[in-house]
């Protein structure tokens, strides 16, 4: 575990010799030289990796370890101590991430339930037994697809705060896929639509990406909004 967890960080850190310089921690960094720019970039990447794993390192100890390694100094801990240290540190990080995800999931669910409860009261919004809500924006006259069909659509996906997470409209490139190969809310709605229809879908998380979400833009238990235009059946 020790080697696999730190392999990427060690590869990144090895070329950087400036860490071995005993400079004051509060010295202003200009980021002008190749060494400064490269070192800062690698340090930032290491920080991102650590944070993504829930790890909150003691920076003085982290830098001491890097400096000792670059100076080829003997480590201040035995191999067994280092193995145990990284294992316990990793477990601590995993617990932090788990707690953060659980808190995010609870908030997202609460926000989604509140949003959908208010949204269903709006004129023109239809709520189905599954929890799917939709609003007809444009009415078409073509046939409706079956679950086994492939369809061509344009869509624009947002969170309930209005932020865009995906949009074929913005890419100016329609998307083609199997009706039964997408999230449940889409599969249900598409079979109710006709070619030429444009609907606004409001999907509870259970009909979207559920508790897993779809990182990096869609968190756990996130309610989603899509504007979907059914362009054709293939």
Explain briefly what this protein structure is.
By secondary structure, this protein is an alpha+beta fold. It is built from six helices and seven strands, in the order ααααββββαβαββ. It has helices at 2-13, 34-52, 59-70, 79-119, 168-171, 184-190, and strands at residues 125-127, 133-138, 150-159, 164-167, 175-178, 198-203, 224-233.
Could you explain how this protein is built, in words?
This protein has 6 helices and 7 strands, in the order ααααββββαβαββ. The protein is 41% helix and 18% strand. The chain starts with a helix and ends with a strand. A hairpin with a 4-residue loop joins strand 3 and strand 4. The N terminus is likely disordered. The longest helix is centred in the middle third of the chain and has 41 residues. Strands 1, 2, 3, 4, 5, 6 and 7 form a 7-stranded antiparallel sheet that branches. By secondary structure, the protein is α+β, with helices and mostly antiparallel strands. The protein folds into 2 domains: 75 residues, no CATH class; 121 residues, Chitinase A, domain 3 (Roll), CATH 3.10.50.40. The relative contact order is 0.12.
Provide the fold topology.
Layout: H1 2-13, H2 34-52, H3 59-70, H4 79-119, E1 125-127, E2 133-138, E3 150-159, E4 164-167, H5 168-171, E5 175-178, H6 184-190, E6 198-203, E7 224-233
Antiparallel strand pairs: 1-2, 2-6, 3-4, 3-5, 3-7, 6-7
Rg measurement, Å? 25 Å
Order of helices and strands: HHHHEEEEHEHEE
By DSSP, the count of extended strands is: 7
Secondary-structure content class: alpha+beta
Number of continuous helical runs: 6
The gross shape turns out to be: elongated
Distance between the termini: 49 Å
As an assembly, this protein is single chain
CATH class of the largest domain: Alpha Beta
Q: What is the helical fraction, as a range of percent? A: 40-55%
Q: Which residue ranges are poorly predicted, with pLDDT under 50 across at least 5 consecutive positions?
A: 1-24
Q: What CATH architecture of the largest domain do you see?
A: Roll
Number of domains: 2
User: How does the major sheet shape up?
Assistant: 7 strands, antiparallel
Could you tell me the mean pLDDT?
89
CATH topology of the largest domain: Chitinase A, domain 3
Q: How much β-strand is present in the residues?
A: 15-25%
């Amino acid at each position: 575990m020790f080697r696999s967890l730190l392999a990427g960080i060690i590869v990144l850190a090895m070329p950087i010799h400036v860490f071995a310089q005993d400079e004051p921690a509060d010295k202003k960094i200009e980021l002008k030289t190749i060494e400064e720019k490269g070192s800062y970039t690698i340090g930032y990447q290491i920080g991102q990796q650590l944070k993504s794993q829930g790890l909150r390192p003691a920076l003085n100890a982290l830098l001491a370890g890097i400096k000792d390694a670059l100076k080829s100094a003997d480590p201040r801990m035995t191999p067994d101590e280092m193995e145990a240290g990284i294992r316990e540190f990793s477990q601590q990080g995993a617990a932090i991430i788990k707690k953060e995800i659980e808190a995010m999931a609870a908030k997202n669910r609460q926000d989604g339930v509140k949003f959908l409860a208010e949204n269903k009261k709006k004129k023109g919004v239809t709520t189905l037994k599954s929890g799917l809500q939709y609003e007809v924006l444009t009415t078409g006259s073509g046939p409706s697809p079956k679950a086994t069909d492939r369809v061509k659509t344009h869509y624009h996906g947002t969170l309930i705060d209005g932020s865009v997470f995906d949009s074929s409209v913005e890419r100016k490139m329609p998307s083609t896929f199997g009706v039964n190969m997408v999230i449940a809310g889409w599969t249900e709605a598409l079979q109710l639509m006709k070619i030429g229809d444009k609907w606004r879908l409001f999907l509870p998380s259970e009909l979207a990406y559920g508790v897993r979400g779809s990182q990096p833009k869609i968190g756990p238990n996130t309610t989603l909004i899509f504007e979907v235009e059914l362009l054709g059946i293939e």
